[in-house]
Amino acid sequence: MKRLPIQLLISAATFCIAVVLAVALGSKTDLLSEAMGDTDADSLHIDIEIKEPTILYGMFVDDLVVIEDKIKRNQFLGDILASYNVPASLIHQLSMVSKNVFDVRKIAPDKKYTVLCTPDSTKTARAFVYEPNPLEYVVIRFDDTLSVDLQRREVTRVEKSVAGIVNNNLSQTIESLGISHELTNMFVDIFAWQVDFQRLQKGDKFKIIYEENQVEGKFAGINRILAVYFEHFGNPYYAFPYDQGEGVDFFDEEGKSLRKALLKYPIEFTRISSRYSLSRFHPVRKVYRAHLGTDFAAPTGTPIRSVGDGVVLEAQYTSNNGNYVKIRHNSTYTTQYLHMSNIASGIRPGVRVRQGQTIGYVGSTGLATGPHLCYRFWKNGVQVDALKVELPPSQPIADEHRAAFETVVNGLTGRLNAIPFPEVLEDPLAALN
């Protein structure tokens, strides 16, 4: 018997399979046609809805219960987690696992947190998210192993400008414009040694070009100030940032530094309730005596900052001073901060501190009738008025940076000049772009 070539057999098999499929498909098409009447079977479409998974803080949450809340005063993280059935052993491990990422003991009141729980009646936490600020969030996962991660949101920087005319005081003026206190404090720090902001006059003017941080289209802090014009008693003041290789500093239009060795204010810009005086009526002792300090009125808990780099000499409690910190900045200047509600963690004699570092919090301990900071200042061992002491400025623009600096100044000056002031002085204020 003669054998057929293998190629022919394959071709015949392929043909048979094709015929069977055609018959089967034809039968199904006929059945569909009969069932659908005049509807063309070829035009049949079946829509299948595919649901996108819900992702929150980088986790799938469709099968979890999402609970959002804010930290309450005197509330501890361990208490929150225990209420969501997190075992005590895991809570105990948190301080060790998180120490290089985030100090879980420093959760603050009014900060947002989110708990992702199982959907059953126990509502056991699978993850906990804490948001210390608009830019960052801490994710604690209770999976097979405990994990703690610090995540940062994507930040968009938006350039803005503002112009205003002082009607009452600077804080109220800027607040009326809907601008954050953060920008006010940055502005005041720049000119603190050139202008007495406690004694502004009606009609003083300012223009600021700055960068705002935004997260998902919402305000998330001030990134930096790009240029400032301030007119005080008819005198113009300019400020321009420039980096000569040792970090950004602010200079006037001639290249003179606006920074001093020490900050002028030990807390964010606020009201002075009592000035340095050789004869003041003491509100507690009810006698006239010297008041060799400056009192700043502020709510309890307001952070107090060191006005300069230095070494802590004293950090303790006495009956008159309450909780206080004393810092030696160099052989000439020493400062002291009294009546604190609490001294900041880690602040003790011998510790070095940096300019702007939080050293304690406003309170009313010791001989104080209400919450405030009494700030004292020594020059060469003698107490002086902190707001009137003359400090040497930092280094001006160096010759090798002069040309580049002037290019920056010329460009920013033109942009400041293009920002209009409000037309009517009686209306305190201005335009926010």
List keywords for this structure.
ten-stranded antiparallel beta sheet, 36% strand, alpha+beta, 19% helix, disordered N terminus, 6 helices, 25 strands, 433 residues, globular, disordered C terminus, Nuclear Transport Factor 2, Chain: A, Glucose Permease (Domain IIA)
State the share of residues found in helices, binned by percent: 10-25%
Structural class: alpha+beta
* Low-pLDDT segments: 1-10, 19-23, 275-282, 427-431
Number of domains: 3
Shape: globular
Strand content: 35-45%
CATH fold category name of the largest domain? Nuclear Transport Factor 2, Chain: A
Total DSSP E strands: 25
CATH architecture of the largest domain: Roll
SS field, number of helical segments:
6
- Output the radius of gyration: 34 Å
Mean of pLDDT: 82
Task: Please describe the biggest sheet, giving its number of strands, its sense, and whether it closes into a barrel.
Answer: 10 strands, antiparallel
What's the end-to-end separation, in Å? 97 Å
The top level CATH class name of the largest domain: Alpha Beta
